[in-house]
Amino acid sequence: MKTTLSTVLRTIERHRFSVFIICLLLTLSSLYVNNPTRTKQMYDNFRGYVKFNSPTSNVFTADDPTPTVPQSCRPLNRFVFIKPEKTGGSTVSTLLHRFGMKNELVAAIQSEGFVIKVDKENHHLGILYYNCSDFPGYDYICSHVKIYDRLALERVVPNAKYFTIVRSPYTHLKSWFYFKMRNMNLSMSPDPFALYLNEMKENVMVNMKLKGETNSFCHRFDLDIHANETSSLEALHRLNRELDLVMIMEYFDESLVLLKKAMCWDFEDIIYHPCKVHAEYQPPTTDEMRDIITQLSHADIRLYDYFNKTFWRRVDNYDGDFKADLSKFRSMQDAARARCERNQKNDFCFKLHSDVRDFKQLLYKKQLKWMC
User: What pLDDT, on the 0 to 100 scale, is given for residue 212?
Assistant: First the structure.
């Protein structure tokens, strides 16, 4: 009897770590019935303890030669993309919708038209609502929003990352013009945009819808275009604190690398296919035309210059090797383009080449299926 007991004790002593684990698991199992949330927290801590304290564990394993370190960057799934017109916003939106569908996120879609209307008095967004008893809430917005209302947006997507994209006013207004000129009687002019700018300069009655696009970025973000330089700078500082990233269309690839870093996403998540790119000939912008645009869009030029500077400061302070990441992304972008040119029928390539309108036609029904 004594020999048997002594043998058991020696066995327990040799395997005391395993015995400890078994006892702890039994204890956690009994606790789970009464308090599952707290028990899960204890279990997570326990897993970390076993991983780094087991006698047989090692930070390097045969299957994974890389050091095992705590994950400090997890993909973020809640975001609001304020999408301005004619800035590459549709291209950004398609990759965001692709990411959303891949991760079964719920998009807030405008209830009518192409723009989410905003009731600033009541801080209410004009979006489609789902009458599901267990509706989980919205995860993201990537649409044209009539005007930036932070409170209204936070009510729809709380705890989100906010970003947008801007474009040089000198090319932005011109792009808007050629997009809208089919509705104007200027097509017979050898340089219709120059004619239109001169008409605006002389206050000739012109298409007011396009004239309203001067200083459109400031209008979108509810900034006073008539503010003096000091007040304008204070407003831009405030907006910069509220936005997590302002991308620049002229540096599109660089912007997406910054977006990937800010959201802790993979390179595959930011691969894109250009949308709504118009290749028709446009006469070059002369110095005289630039002077007129400077007068008409002075507030937007100040905004663009401000965020162009913050953009490059972010690049300078990038956590990692920015040039290497940019090169890797462009290589993956080229590979994806070549692969999808050969075969557009696979799911990735089909979604890569889909437009915003295609995604929105799919989203409402798919989201109903996911949630209800």
Answer: 62
Closest by Cα among 221, 82, 92, 101 to 156: 82
Tell me how far apart the alpha carbons of residues 170 and 289 are, in angstroms, rounded to a whole number.
9
Helices and strands in the chain, H and E counts: 16, 7
Number of Cβ within a 10 Å radius of residue 113: 10
CA 37, distance to chain mean position in Å, is: 32
Cα distances (Å, whole numbers) of residue 243 to 19, 120, 240, 254, 263: 53, 19, 5, 18, 13
From residue 174, alpha-carbon distances to 87, 217, 225, 340 in Å are: 12, 15, 20, 32
**What predicted TM-score, i.e. pTM, was given to this entire model?**
0.77
Whole-number Å distance between alpha carbons of 142 and 84:
10
Report how far residue 356's alpha carbon sits from residue 64's, in angstroms, rounded to the nearest whole number: 40
- Encode pLDDT of 132-185 as tens digits: 878 889 999 999 999 999 999 999 999 999 999 999 999 999 988 888 775 566
- In what helix (H) or strand (E) does residue 164 lie, and over which residues does it extend? strand 161-166
81 CB neighbour count, 10 Å cutoff: 22
The answer, yes or no, to whether residue 124 has pLDDT greater than 90, is yes
pLDDT digits (tens, 9 = 90+) for 80-101: 999 998 899 999 999 999 999 8
Task: Record the tokens describing residue 26, joined without a space.
Answer: 């039994």
Q: How far apart are CA 37 and CA 189, in angstroms?
A: 71
CB of 256 closer than 8 Å to CB of 245: no
